[in-house]
Amino acid sequence: MRRTHTCGELKPSDIGSKVCLEGWVRFSRDHGGVAFIDLADRYGVTQVVFDPEDTPIGINVSALSNTLKTFTRESVISVNGIVRKRIAGTEDDRSSTGRVEVLITSAELLNKSAVPPFEIGDQKEGALPNEDIRLEYRYMDLRRTEMIHAIEFRSRFLHLARQYFESQNFLEIETPILARGTPEGARDYIVPSRINSGKFYALPQSPQLYKQMLMIAGLDRYYQIAKCFRDEDSRKDRQPEFTQLDIEMSFVDESDIQSYVENMLAYVWKGLYNRDLQTPFPRISYIEAMEKYGSDKPDLRYELQLENLTNIFKETNYEILRKIVADGGIVVGINVSHNILKEKIGRNDIDRYINLAKKFGLGGLTWARVVNGELESNIVKYFTSKNKIDIKNIMDAKNGDLIFLMAGPKRRTLEGAGLMRKQLATDLDLIPKNTFQFHWLVDCPMFEIDPISGKKDAFHHPFVLPYDNFKKGACFDILLNGNELGSGSMRINKPEIQIDVFHQIGLSDEEIEKNFGWFVKALGYGAPPHGGVAIGIDRIISILLNKETIRDTIAFPKNKKAQSLVDKSPSRIDSERLEELQLISMADDDADLPAIEEYTDEQLQG
Question: Are strands 100-111 and 44-50 parallel, antiparallel or unpaired?
């Protein structure tokens, strides 16, 4: 190797050794002719020093000094020197190399850097440039300690996961990237075929059907670190291309799959943190999650549970709530205990929550305080004595507690109350830091009704095994701190049941044959009972590292507009290539078409 040590390796026991270090000039400074350079690489930073008064005899000090003057920030250099102890009082205990330095005896500029677009050293909060600049110069951004740590952590996580599955006799099997598009889930990215003119591949949204066919093939334990693609809007926890840990097994049930996932995460946890992860994870039903937390991905790290008060208001003098209940709606409450109220929430704060409730899809919000054992607010005068007693009992309300009441159609009210619960927890600083709460969402419905189209859709996907006369699906989610990490299920393994499910989501026999005939055919050749799960790697890494966005855990992510700024993709294709693929070019090569939203209605019609 050219270098004898990395920049994060030297320690006091190396004092007196002759070494060669290579890396990037992070910082440099001159103190009266003595030059100090912070030399950095992936492993750390070592201070290297040019000291004319201490340079060994025989070294051309002038030539060495001139060489050092060519070193600009972020240039890559090589230095040879002698490890020595730092002068007392100049040690840096924040660094693993902070008690030593290297006295330079020779140096070489390996490659000069242009002026860096931003500072690469450890950043103070708010010192980073905007994200698009960082993504344009991602190769520079990845030199930052924080980014190096994220990439190393991700690599370690995947390595440990592989170790576990290999120890359990799983096979790592790659499935195709060029595949057939299917009309379920998000939009596909499509790829034209030159050889098969006029036909297209689709990039896989997941390896779902391929991994099921692996089970039909008898390869009963499969896993893959799978690349997946979805043409959907980017968010802080979504990317057009993402990575999932994909698992499938035969001759198992739901609890078997969940147990393997828990054991894998416990193995990874021990390897990452040298701590035991408490298993099994709690299980909560879909109905319980919605009714207690107002979400199908509840955060269980704090309380503020929803309580159902609907029956109380079937008969009340408060006409608004009575009418909502009579129309089939519900009334739910959240008790903000006096024990967690850091400061008194005043009327202005309550008005803010009333406005937030409307943004959360609620018709409004009503409130009451418990003062001297009695409910007080501007509406309690409409409550009967029994109403007041029942509210206090169900809400377990004590003196000083603040109760929020929300009412309306069931689903919208539960979801809005769930958002209010989360807002209150944030405002009151109830969400613990560096606490990780895994749990399973179970007993999920087989189908749900799309609120916009009114169409029946699969709750997860149409390959979930149904039961209870198709009311429920053998599917489940794994959640962490209120975030869905992934979904799993038992799969349909009989062609007649698969066809029936396709019919229920509105597919005709012709559509089934056209899009899924090949898969239904495979199910007819002895498909075993099987199931699996897929966990989003980008998402779990971002949560464990407390990142705001999964983009900070991916080496080369797309930005919010699904663009790769480092290589300027997506880009236009030369007209010759389009002709070769028999695709029609919308414009000349050099044309810069505006985004769709920039056209006028007349232009769009044209």
Answer: parallel
